[in-house]
Amino acid sequence: MCGICGFTIATGGAARLVFGYDSYGNTCGQRNEPIEGVRLSGLDHTDRKFVFFLDPCNIDIIQRKIKSMALCVSQCPTEELATYYDLKRFAMINGSELCSYELPGHKYPQLPERFEKCPKLPVPESKALPVFNRCTPVDISCYAKFAEAVVTFVSGNSMLNRLIAGVAASKEIIVGLCLLALVLSMILMVIIRYISAVLVWILTALVVLGSLGKSSGLGWCFLLLISILLLPQGILLLLMLFMRKRVALTIALFHVAGKVFIHLPLLALQPFCTFLALSLFWVYWIMVLLFLGTTGNPEKNEDTGLVEFRLTGALQYMTWYHAVGLIWISEFILACQQMTVAGAVVTYYFTRDKTKLPVTPILSSVLRLVRYHLGTVAKGSFIITLVKIPRLILMYIHNQLKGKENACARCMLKTCICCLWCLEKCLNYLNQNAYAATAINSTSFCTSARDAFMILVENALRVATINTIGDFVLFLGKILIVTCTAFAGVLALNYQRDYTEWVLPLIIVCLFAFLVAHCFLSIFEIVVDVLFLCFAIDTKYNNGTPGREFYMDKALMVSHR
Predict the structure, then answer these.
(1) Per-residue pLDDT tens over the stretch 441-478
(2) What are the residue ranges spanned by the domains of the chain?
(3) How does residue 242 score in pLDDT terms, banded at 50, 70 and 90?
(4) Coil, helix or strand at residue 306
(5) What Å distances lie between residue 449 and 429, 432, 533, CA to CA?
(6) Average pLDDT over the chain, rounded to whole?
(7) Backbone torsions φ then ψ of 65, nearest 5 degrees
(8) Which three-class secondary structure state does DSSP give residue 27?
(9) Distance from the CA of 226 to the CA of which of 117, 241, 293, 330 falls in 20 to 30 A?
(10) Which parts form a coiled-coil structure per UniProt (predicted)?
C-alpha cells in the first residue's frame, strides 16, 4: 500500500489532486510536459496556481463532479464580473485571464468564441480553497440546484424541521449526555465485578422458576402426561445443579477482571487508542484513494473534448488492492488491540506478587508486540480478511439483485452470507485466544491457534457457560448504561414539552451510549477470555503442590475447588 501511495506521488496524481489541473492535462503551479494529441498541453503554469471553472455551478450530482472546463489562473475573481468588458478589465489589471488560453484578454468582448470558451456570466466573486487552490464562489447560493432537493424536502417537511431544530437547540445537552455515557462505561468496568454475581444468580433463579412455573401450569392441564412434561424440567434442574461450579467460575472471572482494571487502569484507554489508530489509517486510505482518482494516463473525452486521467491495464487493479488493504489493515489494528490487552493481562495473571508488576505493563505489551508478534497479528487478521471479502461480495450481489432473483437464489445467497458470518465470528474468537496463547508461550500463530483450540475443546462446558452467561451479563451492562443515559436525557430535555423536539436528541444520545458501552465492555470481554485461558493453562500444568503452585487469584482458587 505504501508502494501504491508512492506511485501516485511519483506519477503526479498527488500533485494533480492538491494543486489541481486544467482541462488540457496541465497541472497548475508548475511546468508541464506536452501530451500527445492534446492541444494547449505542456504549458508553463508556474505563475498560474489556481484552478478556475468556467461554470462552477454546473454540477453532475450522479458523477459527483463539476461538468465544466477548468483553467489555471493566476488569481481568482475578487469581485462579480457581469460583462465581457469586466473580464477584459480584470485580465488587463490583474494579469489573470479567465477565458481559454488561446484567446487574448484584450479582445474578449469581440471574439465569437467567447460564448463557449469564456466563463458563464455573471462570474461570481470567488476565493481559493486553502491547500487545494480551487476558486470557489463566495455566494453558496451558486449551488442552489445541487441542494434544491434537500432544501425542498427539509423545508417542506414540518416534522423534519422540528426534529432538526430540536437537535440544534439541545446540542449542549447532547454533548453532556454523551460524556455521561462515557463516564458510566468506565465506572461500570470497575464495579461490574460486584454486581456480576447478583446478575448471574438472578438469571439462574429466573430460568429455574420459569421452568417450574411452566411445568406446574401444564401439569394441571394435562395430568396424564405430567411425567413426560416434567422430564425436560428435571433435566434442566439437574443441568443447572451440575453447572453451578462453572457459573461460580464465571462470577470469579468477572471479579478478577475488575481487579485487572484497578491494577491496569490504562486498559480503559484502549478503545481511544484503537479509534485514533483507525481514524488516522482511514484518513490516509481516503487520501491515497483520491490520489488514485487523479493518477494514470491522460485520455481525451470525445464528447466534451476535455482531458481526464484514468488507470488502464494492470494499473486499474491498484484500486482493488487498496480496497483489500482497507479491510486487512483495519482488522490488523483491531488484532493489535487484542494482542496488547492479552499481553498485559497475561503479565498480571502470571505475576504472583502484584506489587512487583512492571511500571507500565501495557507499554511493555506494546513493545513485545512490535518486537516479536507483528507477523502473528498480520496472519490472524489476513485470515479474517479472506473470509470477510467473499461475504462482502455476496452482500453486494444480493443488494444488486434485490427484486430480480428467484426465491431459491435469494435463499442460497442469504445462506452463504450467514455461513460466512458465522465462520468469521468463530475465527475471530479463535484468533483472540491464539493471541493470548502467543502472549503466554511466545509461539507462532499456527502453534498458538492449535494450543488455544485444544485448551478450548478440553474446557468446552466451561467455555459455553462463560460465553453464554458472560455475554448476557455484559449485554445487561450495556442496557444499564443506555437506560441511565436515557433517563438523564429525559430529565434534561423535559423542559421541551413537544416530544418531536427531544425525541431525536434522545435517540442520538442512546445510540452513542450503546456504542461507547459496547467499545468499553468489549475490552472487558477480552480480559475475561484471556483470564480464562490463563486459568485453564494454570490448572493444566499446576496442581497447587510445592513447586507447582497455582498463579491464580484467590477468587479463582475458591471456584476451582
Answers:
(1) 989 999 999 999 999 998 888 888 888 778 878 888 88
(2) 15-156, 160-560
(3) low
(4) coil
(5) 10, 9, 12
(6) 80
(7) -155, 165
(8) strand
(9) 241
(10) none
